[in-house]
Every structure is written in C-alpha cells, then in structure tokens.
C-alpha cells in the first residue's frame, strides 16, 4: 500500500480539498480545477470506449494527482456488490460529481438505465465528457437539479425519464449529507421504491449523515433492513467511514 494512501495528509491536494470544502458545498467543486483536470487526464490517458480503463484512470488521478470526493475504489467495491444484489433495471443516483460511481453502476449492470441528479451544471458537463470517453453516455443520464427544490426535479424525473410507482430498483445517495434523509423521504413520498429496492448511502461516517443513520436504525426490521459496512474515506486508509446498504421492506 502506498504512503499516499496510508498517510493521505502528506498530499497537498488533500489539504487543498479541506480548505475548499466550504466552496464545494456551495458550488460542487473544490475550486482548484481538479474536476476539469480529471476529465482532461481521462481523455489523455484512458483508452476511448474502455470503461475499465476510464475507471482506472480516475482512480489513478485521485490517488496520484488530486484527491476526488467520489465513492472511490475501496467503497466502490461495496457499491458493486450492492448493485449485483439488486440486479436493477432502473437506478437513481443523487450526486454525480465527476461521474465515477455512475460508471461503476453501469459496468456492473449493463442492462440498467442509470439517471444521476447533480446540482452543479459544471460537474454534469465534466461527467458527460468522461461518460462519452468511456462509451457509456447512451446508458447514463445526468439531470441538473436537486430533490429538495420544491418538486421541480422530481417532476422532471417523472415526466422526462419515466420515474413512477415502484420504478427504482437501486438508489445511490452521495451528495449533500444534510439532505440524505429528506431526499429519501421525498422519493418515498412519490412511491418510487418497491419492496426489495436497495438504497446505498456513502459517507455516513465522514463527513457524516447522523439523522439518516438514526432513521435507518429506528426503522430496522420495520421499513428497512440495513447493513452498516465499515470502510475508509475515499482514496486513503486512515479515516474510517460507513456505507449503509438498506433494503426497503415496504411496498
């Protein structure tokens, strides 16, 4: 294991990430151009049309060039396993960022339709560039908006992308940690989940989504069956994190 992975705080990009988190919350980007640089790195170094090579290039960039706040390689394997268990035809993702997790989902379940919601238009364009280079832009769609915008994005998902009762087989949540619970409840309110739908939530430990975790614990065995996966914050092995995988027991 490399020193930069074991001791991430030796990496200047990690310090810049910490300093840029306030900007990230507002804009969806760290502010030093790393997201755009990631897309350029992929286009310059990964084989066009090779999804595995594109994912590997993003991981290399995040490990060696500038840390990214996507799900990463270690937690990505947990996401892959959840996707295999769900065997979804329709996937909804909250938080596109640079498009990495959507590509992992598309790789694991090639027949599925993946729709990703991202509040930052600049990130949406970066993700689309990377998806096009990987050759999966025909299977992944990015919708710019937020679930908490009063229903506009939910209405758009319903009207333009066919989301309706029981449509969502897998929901991946990796955006504003303060919105995890409210956005899940909004989706539940639309009736888009069915019995057996799986919801995966990243970063429940760091930076943390305590309300979401408390809700899942309170509803354990009633509305949800949740497994808490102990893991690490993306692209390092020092800070511990939690990924929650929850099976919906309602209908």
UniProtKB/TrEMBL annotation:
Matching Pfam families: Methyltransf_3
InterPro entries: SAM-dependent_MTases_sf (IPR029063), SAM_O-MeTrfase (IPR002935)
GO function terms (MF aspect): O-methyltransferase activity
Entry keywords, A to Z: Methyltransferase, S-adenosyl-L-methionine, Transferase
Signal peptide region: none
GO biological process: methylation
PANTHER family attached to this UniProt entry: CATECHOL O-METHYLTRANSFERASE 1-RELATED
Stated name of the protein: Methyltransferase
Organism annotation: Mycolicibacterium agri (Mycobacterium agri)
Lineage, top ranks: Bacteria, Bacillati, Actinomycetota, Actinomycetes, Mycobacteriales
